[in-house]
Amino acid sequence: MHRFILGLLRVVLLADLTLAGTVHAAGPLSELKLFKSTPMGQGLWRMELVSSDDPQMARGAAAMGQTGLCMDVAKQMSRNTPAEDPRCTPQVLRNTDSQAEIEINCKDGGGSRMLMTRESDKSYLMDTTVSKDGKQRNFKVRYTHAGACKGESMMQFDKNSPMCKHMDPARMLARCASLPESSRAQCEQQMKGLAASCQ
Q: I need a labelling partner for 39 at 20 to 30 A (CA). Which of 21, 46, 113, 183 fits?
């Protein structure tokens, strides 16, 4: 179970950092009308995987239970992981008060297309198609505002979810010990953050 949960975490984390980077972008993405009059850049946003053509992702979402994204922390992280990767070129295809469509093409042949729709003042739907190695993967995630963040973790999970119940912090940290010293500290920090995300 841990393998596909971690796989889902990587995908969701990428989507979240991309979203946070888009909301706070300084380049062409900063001109998106969708985020001009919205609280999207702050607080806790509940995430719901609406659909996915990847069965593994769907199973992982079920195991993770109710998931939240703290945009305050994501905003800080997005400064180190900008939405506008120099290896990739973003193009705004649609830019209205209710929708934003972005296509990103990368030098390695991969890319993605995101359609973000405002459903209400506190709800957004993000429809993402990722292309890599000739394969496409689509998933839709709904973000709903849920007030202020709880704690300092970017991702926040239900402590009663299957993932949190099966999480073994000591075992997770032990795996970091087998890594090269250069990446060990980062691994330990990530594992501690993941454990702290279960609230």
A: 113
